[in-house]
Amino acid sequence: MIVTLAAIEAARRTLAGQVLATPMLPAPKLSALTGAEVYVKYENLQVTNSFKDRGAFVKLATLSETERRRGVIAMSAGNHAQAVAYHAARLGIPATIVMPVTTPLVKVASTRAYGATVVLHGETITEAQQRCESIAVEQDLAWVHPYDDPKIIAGQGTIALEMLEAVPALDVLAIPIGGGGLIAGNAIAARAINPAIEVLGVEAALYPSMRNAVTGEDRAIGGPTLAEGIAVKNVGRLTLPIVRELVADIILVDEAQLERAVNAYLTLQKTMAEGAGAAGLAAMLAAPERFAGKRVGLILCGGNIDPRILASIMVREL
User: Fold this and answer.
1) Mean pLDDT over residues 199-211, rounded?
2) Do residues 91 and 113 touch, judged by C-beta distance below 8 A?
3) Residue 106: what pLDDT?
4) Among 59, 54, 47, residue whose Cα is nearest residue 86
5) Any idea what the Cα angle at residue 6 is, between residues 79 and 2, rounded to 5°?
6) Residue 42: its pLDDT value, please?
7) pLDDT per residue as tens digits for the range 59-75
8) Which of 10, 28, 29, 44 has the most CB atoms less than 10 A away?
9) What percent of the chain is helix, strand and coil (3-state, nearest 5)?
């Protein structure tokens, strides 16, 4: 396997003192809602309010001096963009970020505020990636891929190390899937520590890209989703075989379930979750029988939601 537990442990040493080791806390109200014993890892408390801080810092910290001087480029719907921009500024590395034009304004503004050059291009991550690749060649920039990179995967996998240190007896991890970097790193770490733990992936029903790739299904992909952070059409070349080997199943969640989960985090946990960040909880609402009576670890992987969208969700839920 291209990423090992040793590589994830090395990434954790790189992150020490640089990125927050976020709290892992019991969630009694979510437990009552779902019928499981729920624990939440609060990655929305990172400086850029998502787990992407981890992989971005690990990748940037391991660049050569020549690569740092030339600068880096990344494509992202928002959270990876902010993480790369923030940590590149900390390390004195020029950063260019290509974002789809559909990216929430709060994420575009935050990325620019960290000092990165932002290029808005295309309706989707796939279209943004094509522009990103061309700029990388034109300007000779180091590519910081949001998920298909061993350093990124290892950095994200440090979350599971912290989760299982806090609650060693977890039965299940429910992890959102976009391109697969988050679930790949954490599946490697979790299954290496506890081979019996069940790792379940979660995708937006409108973007079942990883499920299609793993199962051979041909579900339609596309459309506006609350979970734009995991609205990915092309899964990772590196992450796909890891998911095939280590992930037990992939649950699809619809927009109503995502909205309900975002609202539950806000009203019950008093914390902010974007659509992708709430996907794990949405899976518990979509398929409660898969989790009933089990100790479940959720990664609240991002909290960068447009306030106008959040207000609309709250009104509908009320």
Assistant:
1) 98
2) no
3) 75
4) 47
5) 70
6) 98
7) 999 999 999 999 999 99
8) 44
9) 50, 15, 35
What does the alpha-carbon distance between residue 37 and residue 279 come to, in Å, rounded to a whole number?
Answer: 17
User: What's the rounded Cα separation, in Å, for the pair 104 and 208?
Assistant: 21
Residue written as token pair 């009203």: 267
Task: Give the integer Cα–Cα distance in Å for 273 and 286.
Answer: 17
* Average pLDDT of the residues in 152-164: 98
* Eight-class DSSP state of 302: B
Report the DSSP beta bridge partners of residue 119: 98
By the 8 A CB rule, do 82 and 304 touch? yes
| DSSP notation for 14-81 | HHTTTS----EEE-HHHHHHHTSEEEEEEGGGSTTSBTHHHHHHHHHHTS-HHHHHH-EEEE-SSHHH
Which pLDDT value is given to residue 76?
87
Q: What is the mean pLDDT of the chain?
A: 95
Beta strand 142-143 with 249-253 is: unpaired
Q: What sign does the CA torsion over 272, 275, 278, 281 have? A: positive
Q: Determine the 3-state secondary structure of 253 from DSSP.
A: strand
The CA distance from 20 to 47, in Å, is 8
DSSP 8-class letter at 237: T
Alpha helices in 269-298 (DSSP H): 279-286
Q: Judge whether residue 318 has pLDDT over 80.
A: no
Could you give the angle at the alpha carbon of 82 between the alpha carbons of 113 and 280, nearest 5°? 140
Reported residue count of the chain is 318
Torsional sign, CA 276, 78, 220, 233: negative
Instruction: Give the alpha-carbon dihedral of 278, 284, 290, 295, to 10 degrees.
Output: 80
Whether the Cβ atoms of residue 27 and residue 38 lie closer than 8 Å to each other: yes
